[in-house]
Design goal:
There is one protein chain. The chain is α/β, with parallel strands linked by helices and about 475 residues long. The chain folds into two domains: about 270 residues, Aldehyde Dehydrogenase, Chain A, domain 1, CATH 3.40.605.10; about 190 residues, Aldehyde Dehydrogenase, Chain A, domain 2 (3-Layer(aba) Sandwich). The chain is built from 15 helices and 21 strands. The strands form five sheets. The chain has a seven-stranded mixed β-sheet with strand order 15-16-17-14-13-18-19, sandwiched between helices. Strands 10-9-8-11-12-20 form a six-stranded mixed β-sheet, sandwiched between helices. A three-stranded mixed β-sheet has the order 1-5-4, with no helix packed on it. The radius of gyration is 23 Å and the shape is globular. The N and C termini lie far apart (about 75 Å). The mean pLDDT is about 95. The structure holds NADPH dihydro-nicotinamide-adenine-dinucleotide phosphate. The site of NADPH dihydro-nicotinamide-adenine-dinucleotide phosphate has 26 residues, from helix 7 and helix 8. This is Aldehyde dehydrogenase. Belongs to the aldehyde dehydrogenase family. It comes from Acanthopleuribacter pedis. GO terms for molecular function: oxidoreductase activity, acting on the aldehyde or oxo group of donors, NAD or NADP as acceptor.
Length: about 475
């Protein structure tokens, strides 16, 4: 007998609200409803913002002794680790993540809170002597209420990336999770309370993007928006924020290249390249969906890449052996399949994959076998637009110049990889490639300690590293005569 489906009311300033509607949260692996959630409309967003603004003005959080604020963040990291099993299970059921990946992401989120706890009392301003007498001091102050808009592909981890530095700097935050994946963010709000965060410092308001999301961006008391999602929605958010001269950072889509030169260590490169595109079933803004391979090794690369892809286990997220889980929704899978068929119509050849498993137990979920395409033209839709699914295009190139030109030939500029043993070439290419983050002889894009974000249509502003503290603070210069 299935258990009772839990319902999550909206919680604002300790009060429960029914919200403007109820949303059924579905497990993408089997289509079953796992929870219902009260969704915020404009009215509830306004309440949440007023509460967060009052808390900010009340100085309780921003003027708390740095050690005490750091301790709140550390206790939250500890509570996340204590509840890691439950959180990973929840994330896996809500986002369709393979359980091993979900565990790693929960630990990544805990590390993020610990990292910024360490920064609270080590983020200094400056003093100087601007003239012949007197002293200048530059203070780093929090901005105010920050609206944090989170996507569905890494729900808990990205929530942590935004909350931890914003809270470390003394802001109060309102998180708007993606409608499909609100459950771990809601749990985070409970854990924050248990960790001793004052009420109203971290509020989570599930809601639809075009209602709660827009209301958050448009509310004049929200002083900063940090958004991760599609380029289209990012532009809309940027325009609305510009109307109020609101600070905004945008981490948007990608169409990243994986450049493989003939002198690369193929043994390392193949496995890493396969994961670089198919991890999280390709639902990753850093996915290396364009594999560019130097002609002399193109055939060998393709054969080995296809063979390694065949070894990936597409399966139920709860199984320890699963490598790739389902896509987030049936409509998203249909969109991804549309990309594959359009590519074929335009002349690309599907080497393998792209099928929807029909048999139980995968038949009930949004599964899709990883697809490899060749013979796509660089101008084709499949080479230009973000697919956000388990689909890769593999293309040959003749020399470094062509490799660079192909790699830069998209509107996006988030990440990319470079495989070669020639370090002179590395130096030429890392500065020629239009991307915010690159990896050399590795596919690892995101590191807690390094700024993460894009150029061109992949957005602006940086998450992570010490740069994130600057993104959630503003300087104030004071001259003491
Ligand atoms: P969106 O960009 O629409 O959604 C991202 C977040 O923004 C969600 O929380 C969403 O809420 C919210 N949102 C939507 N509309 C608005 C708005 N007008 N104002 C404020 N917030 C809003 O992405 P989708 O989920 O629709 O995915 C579509 C495509 O976007 C994907 O196929 C992929 O290509 C790309 N994408 C990129 C991501 C990245 O990491 N860079 C992450 C997710 C998607 P709600 O969920 O309620 O709509």
């Amino acid at each position: 007998m299935p258990g009772k489906i839990p319902h999550h009311p909206l919680t604002i300033a300790g009060e429960a609200y029914a919200g403007q509607s109820r949303y059924e949260v579905v497990n993408p692996a089997d289509g079953r409803v796992i929870a219902t959630v009260a969704m915020a409309g404009k009215q509830e967003v306004t309440l949440a913002v007023q509460n967060a603004a009052e808390r900010f003005r009340g100085y309780l959080w921003r003027s708390m002794r740095p050690q005490d604020r750091a301790n709140c963040l550390l206790r939250l990291a500890q509570r996340i680790r204590e509840e890691a099993g439950e959180l990973a299970d929840l994330e896996s059921r809500n986002a369709g993540k393979p359980i091993r990946a979900a565990r790693a992401e929960i630990e990544g989120a805990a590390r993020c809170f610990s990292y910024y706890a360490g920064a609270v009392d080590k983020h200094f301003g400056q003093t100087m002597m601007p003239g012949s007498r007197g002293r200048g001091a530059v203070y780093h102050e929090p901005i105010g209420v920050c609206g944090l808009i989170v996507p569905w592909n890494f729900p808990f981890l990205i929530t942590a990336w935004k909350c931890a530095p914003a809270l470390a700097m003394g802001n109060t935050v309102i998180v708007k999770p993606a409608e499909a994946t609100p459950l771990t963010a809601l749990r985070l709000a409970e854990l924050a309370q248990e960790a001793g965060f004052p009420d109203g410092v971290l509020t989570v308001i599930p809601g639809h993007g075009d209602q709660a999301g827009e209301a958050l961006v448009e509310h004049p008391s929200v002083r900063k928006i940090s958004f991760t999602g599609s380029t289209e929605t990012g532009k809309r958010v940027g325009r609305a924020a510009a109307d109020q001269l609101k600070r905004v950072s945008l981490e948007l889509g990608g169409k990243s290249a994986n450049l493989v030169f003939a002198d690369a260590d193929l043994d390392e490169c193949i496995d890493s390249s396969v994961w670089s595109v198919f991890d999280n079933s390709g639902q990753d803004c850093c996915s290396r969906s364009r594999m560019l391979v130097e002609r002399p090794i193109y055939d060998a690369f393709l054969t080995r890449f296809a063979a390694r892809t065949n070894q990936l286990v597409v399966g139920l997220p709860r199984e320890e052996t699963t490598d790739l889980g389902p896509l987030i929704t049936p409509s998203h899978r249909a969109r991804v399949c549309g990309f594959i068929s359009t590519a074929q119509d335009q002349g690309a050849h599907l080497v393998q994959g792209g099928e929807i498993p029909a048999e139980a137990p995968l038949g009930d979920g949004n599964f899709l076998l990883p697809a490899i395409l060749v013979n796509a033209h660089p101008s084709h839709k499949i080479m230009q637009e973000e697919v956000f699914g388990p689909v890769v295009c593999i293309l040959p190139f003749s020399d470094e110049e062509e490799a660079l030109s192909l790699a830069n030939d998209t509107a996006y500029g988030l990440s990319g990889s470079l495989w070669t043993r020639d370090y002179d070439r590395v130096q030429r290419l890392v500065h020629g490639l239009e991307a915010g983050c690159l990896s050399v002889n590795s596919s690892s894009s995101v590191h807690q300690e390094m700024p993460f974000g894009g150029v061109k249509h992949s957005g602006y502003g940086r998450e992570l590293g010490m740069d994130a503290l600057a993104a959630y603070s503003q300087t104030k210069s004071v001259f003491y005569g």
